[in-house]
């Protein structure tokens, strides 16, 4: 059995143990009403399993939103607030967010702001949400193409990670979550990074352990720096350029829509290149990082005339201060460096480096 993880103000429980704790919590709190937020995919693929693991007399109102990052906005929040009001939600109600990062981010924000805050529980159903959105209390929505521009930091009452939900995911969604796990190794733990050199040798039990270890890494960082004054910024490795690429591709009808992890994977290669140029990150390790990431993530075509537009998105990054674009780079694997600046010429060269890499 995977042992629970204690976070700032709540605990993360796993699999069967998690359902038992959730049943206890709901019984003790005696909420006036329970609501479950799902999207159209988790409604079909995850809700039946969740309800089957709850007590027979457990009842809840289901609220469904449309699936996809494009619906992670204030308009969707307004609709959910409206439905909560119409269904008689009050300050003693509970919102259970059953879904990937869009559902947990948006649902956490809806709960944190409805009647100035009601209880919420997160049940992440994608690998990305389990290892990333599940920890740290960041809630929020996008503002047009700008990622997570509006939100609050507020933790759930409890969090349940049921790895059986991963069986419902298509391969590209599994890969998307893998990007954040790779990132946790690169910024924090070289031994954890080594585990990913040969993932084909691992079985499902190994994956459960890797997921728990990834959550522990993120939790350790968040516990030490809950308000993102220093260390927590390291979690943004790969995200400065990754988010800009994700936003640009989202806005450009001629481009394929990239999943979060697919964009972050590119961002990590680009920012590891910057690390070599600025922080003297070892060249052979840059080659290794690129090779490992490209063994999981197919190359994405980024044309030369895309680069200027992608760079223009950097000004919206939330780590920026006083008009400066701040990067998280690496001095070595497991040794990050925060608030580093890079000029446009170097950033452009990082795209050239990515373009020259061979897909594995």
Automatic annotation (TrEMBL):
<keyword id="KW-0862">Zinc</keyword>
<keyword id="KW-0479">Metal-binding</keyword>
<dbReference type="Pfam" id="PF24621">
    <property type="entry name" value="DHQS_C"/>
</dbReference>
<keyword id="KW-0520">NAD</keyword>
<dbReference type="GO" id="GO:0009423">
    <property type="term" value="P:chorismate biosynthetic process"/>
</dbReference>
<dbReference type="InterPro" id="IPR030963">
    <property type="entry name" value="DHQ_synth_fam"/>
</dbReference>
<dbReference type="GO" id="GO:0003856">
    <property type="term" value="F:3-dehydroquinate synthase activity"/>
</dbReference>
<dbReference type="GO" id="GO:0046872">
    <property type="term" value="F:metal ion binding"/>
</dbReference>
<protein>
    <recommendedName>
        <fullName>3-dehydroquinate synthase</fullName>
        <ecNumber>4.2.3.4</ecNumber>
    </recommendedName>
</protein>
<dbReference type="InterPro" id="IPR056179">
    <property type="entry name" value="DHQS_C"/>
</dbReference>
<dbReference type="InterPro" id="IPR050071">
    <property type="entry name" value="Dehydroquinate_synthase"/>
</dbReference>
<feature type="domain" description="3-dehydroquinate synthase N-terminal">
    <location>
        <begin position="63"/>
        <end position="175"/>
    </location>
</feature>
<feature type="domain" description="3-dehydroquinate synthase C-terminal">
    <location>
        <begin position="177"/>
        <end position="320"/>
    </location>
</feature>
<keyword id="KW-0170">Cobalt</keyword>
<dbReference type="GO" id="GO:0009073">
    <property type="term" value="P:aromatic amino acid family biosynthetic process"/>
</dbReference>
<dbReference type="InterPro" id="IPR016037">
    <property type="entry name" value="DHQ_synth_AroB"/>
</dbReference>
<keyword id="KW-0456">Lyase</keyword>
<dbReference type="Pfam" id="PF01761">
    <property type="entry name" value="DHQ_synthase"/>
</dbReference>
<dbReference type="InterPro" id="IPR030960">
    <property type="entry name" value="DHQS/DOIS_N"/>
</dbReference>
<dbReference type="GO" id="GO:0005737">
    <property type="term" value="C:cytoplasm"/>
</dbReference>
<dbReference type="GO" id="GO:0000166">
    <property type="term" value="F:nucleotide binding"/>
</dbReference>
<comment type="function">
    <text>Catalyzes the conversion of 3-deoxy-D-arabino-heptulosonate 7-phosphate (DAHP) to dehydroquinate (DHQ).</text>
</comment>
<keyword id="KW-0547">Nucleotide-binding</keyword>
